[in-house]
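The instructor's notes for this session suggest beginning with a concrete chain rather than abstract definitions. Hand out the sequence below and ask the class to guess, before any prediction is shown, which regions might be ordered.
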Amino acid sequence: MPKVTETVLEINLNHLEHNFSYLKRKLKAETKFLAVVKAFAYGSDSVSVAKKLEHLGVDYFAVAYVKEGVQLRDAGIETPILVLHPQAINFKELIERCLEPSLYSSKILTEFLEVAKRMEQKNYPVHIKFNTGLNRLGFSQDAIDDIYEKLDGRNEIKVTSIFSHLAASEDLTEKKFTLKQIDVFHKIALEFDKKLNHKPFKHLLNTSGIINYPEAQFDMVRSGIGLYGFGNEARIDAELRPVASLKTSISQIHKIELGETVGYNRAFTSKASQVTATLPLGHADGIGRQYGNGKTYVNVNGQKALIIGNVCMDMIMIDISNIDCEAGDEVIIFGDNLTAEEFASTSNTISYELLTGISQRVKRTYIDS
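After discussion, reveal the predicted structure:
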């Protein structure tokens, strides 16, 4: 039986390469590929993931915040990095580290122009985000004239791309809404090109957009969750390979008699003689309390073991009454067979939340041929 000595998040970079190749095959040869590596590359390791993807020839990276881009630059990543949600307080550092901002409002555009001027920039690359229905960040379509007025006669920045974000590309019952977003973005692109003396490239599709709306590739696509092994629908998940596997081991085994309780607040009471195992991870590692009390299971030697009682900060307890195992045996929290999507769904959430919530105190290990 497998033995492990600590809780680890195993990052399979071979699976990352497979997913990248799978998504690339759905694109035209000339379509650029942007890899989203925000939130520690969806909870894995942004540096190792970015280095692998840079080696594979990705065209762009995207992060949420400036400090995430700085980390990649410090690690030697040279590929262009789009910062999706920059704050004005970080603009100086952003420019110093050759990061490219998404400018999404009149205020943020004005503030960046001022910083670029103070730092004597010429044609610094920026990206203009438009809101086509997600209603989160972005200029409205009727702001194009205002944007042009701010840019006219200025040479501190140059618009490298314009882009937007689909709200429901994974939900085919919302196809009409998605097609409307695509149409609005197409109209924005045509109108914006007429204003400038150059044509910035365009991008709109996320992972599910690549799968469901390949006709709207424009000049580049952006993929986050797909690179990490999830396509938001079962048929695509079957084609992808999970990059991250969370593994731990059994610390101790207990025999629990009828009527005995397990864990904080005595949340679990045994209805018969049972055997439990304690595992060295808990809500401080990203396995939240919502997964406790019989809602979710883990994999012990190929068998399902329910989490019982309340999840503790550093430990969880599982029912191993009918499983042949011993202290030190490996336990799979999620991975290739019991996927993060399956695990998350037991508590009515999604793989994104589970993956990005894995604590940085969990050791990362790597597989890469």
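Then share the key points. The CA atoms of residues 4 and 330 lie 6 Å apart. The mean pLDDT is 96.
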